[in-house]
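User: I'm curious whether this sequence folds into something compact or stays loose and floppy. Could you predict its structure so I can see for myself?
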Amino acid sequence: MKYVLEYPGERPGASEAFMHPAVIRELTVAAEECGFAAVALSEHPAPSLKWRHNGGHNTLDPIAALSYIAGVTSRIRLLTNLYVLPFRNPYLAAKALGSLDIVSGGRLIAGVGAGYLRAEFAALGIDHTRRGRLLDESLAAMCRIWSDPGSPVAGEGFGAPGPVWLQRPVQRPHPPLWIGGNGAAARRRVIRHGAGWMPIIADRGMAAAMRTTAIESAEEFSEGVDGLRRELAAAGRDPDSVDIQIVCPVIDFADGSSVRTAIDVLEDLGKRGATWAVVHADSTSPDAAARSIRAFADSVIAR
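Assistant: Here's the prediction. I'll summarize afterward.
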């Protein structure tokens, strides 16, 4: 299992102190030194105040923030979790993500998804009901743009009129694409374009809020993984070539039983096919986050 630090400033209730450059540098360098394989940031360019006051959180533009993190680290991978492709023209997305891959020396993992906040789509002038279709179009377009940047690509509402000049990403043929979402459509996108699947094990209420299919238990997670592996094999792809990310249980490091329970859950999900886990550090303060990053490394990563 490899571990991803979700930047603690994106947890609900986290203070503005997590937005300071020195804190971002301290925590991400600590994560790299402690053996985390990646650091992740989400994307919310225009979330509603209602969302923010009902479990939402602070956010930074992930391209800007991960580019800064790339400059203060050397090995840790940079994960967008998730970059909402329907928000933008595929050429702009390919340019932004490709630039991040270049300035990081090939450390980008492009976690992408359809998005879910209806008010955010309205603020950006995007038809929320078209988000699935736009995601499919963007995935296909970006792969073509990255792999053969000179050939013009066209789609719904965009189109290069002739050959285009763009630098290719460092990773070839392009950065790994991890697809978010629990349902059959997400798995179909993984089979066609993805190097990773990012499901969420959550109850039906949370799944409904995120506009995805519910995966409520380890057993349902197994069913999804088994189905994905069968479909990958049928498509001629090696099922072992696709990473699968889950979320680590929250751990109270002062409670030995909490640590043991979390390790047991991670081992069980690993046996069911998970290869990466997102870790939520203590977000009560930057100092608490630093302590919990090191405690996780000592209790889980180093075991």
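Summary: DSSP finds eleven helices and eleven strands in the chain. The radius of gyration is 19 Å.
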